[in-house]
Amino acid sequence: TLAQGQKVVPVPVRGFSFLVVGCRGWWEITTKMLRNLLALRQIARRTISTASRRQFENKVPEKQKLFQEDNGIPVHLKGGIADALLYRATMVLTVGGTAYAIYQLAVASFPKKQD
User: Fold this and answer.
1) Do strands 9-13 and 17-22 pair parallel, antiparallel, or not at all (unpaired)?
2) Residue 34 contacts residue 16 (beta carbons within 8 Å)
3) Domain span at residue 106?
4) Are 30 and 16 in contact (CB under 8 A)?
């Protein structure tokens, strides 16, 4: 941030770059970098905007109905195939990690004999 009364002043250096002087020093910025920076500011302004360009359909009532349905499926699997795959991957990693930890404890508990 700049102190009160200070400004960032672009000073032309060569044909296609600027020397930007601020309160913390100076930087040489090419016009391509400047264009990219201005485009980034424009994109950031667009994405943070409170006005939505398109309206999304409210799917909350459908999801509530799906998850409150009494069909014998556990709630953590009611989301479909993605939930089932995530659950299985979690179980494989948990069981595999536990087995590996027990193996490493067994290896560490019997040190190698020194000759």
Assistant:
1) antiparallel
2) no
3) 73-110
4) yes
Pair (52, 80) in one structural domain: no
Same domain, 78 and 104: yes
Residue 92 lies in a domain: yes
pLDDT tens digits, residue range 8-45? 665 555 555 555 555 555 555 666 777 777 788 777 77
For the domain that residue 104 is a member of, what is the CATH number? 4.10.91.10
Cβ atoms of 23 and 3 within 8 Å: the answer is: yes
The answer to whether residue 31 sits within a structural domain is yes
Enumerate helices (H) and strands (E) in the chain, giving the number of each.
3, 3
Domain total of the chain? 2
Q: What is the pTM of this model?
A: 0.46
Q: How far apart are CA 88 and CA 81, in angstroms?
A: 11
Name beta bridge partners: 27. Answer: 20
Any alpha helices (H) in 12-73, and if so which ranges?
A: 31-48, 60-68
